[in-house]
Amino acid sequence: MTLDKKQKKQIDAVKNKIKGLQQLLTAARKQPDDPAEIPKLEKQIAALQAEIDKIKGE
Length: 58
Hints:
2 helices
């Protein structure tokens, strides 16, 4: 299935969010001030990955 411009832009936006969250996750792992933050960030990244899969599956 070919993605249209809107879908590509949505995927790019989600990928940028993931990139930012991964940077936060890396920092949280290096300095674990809040132990609940790491799983929360991992869940957010997983949800965004699922969103990308959903967009690609439409």
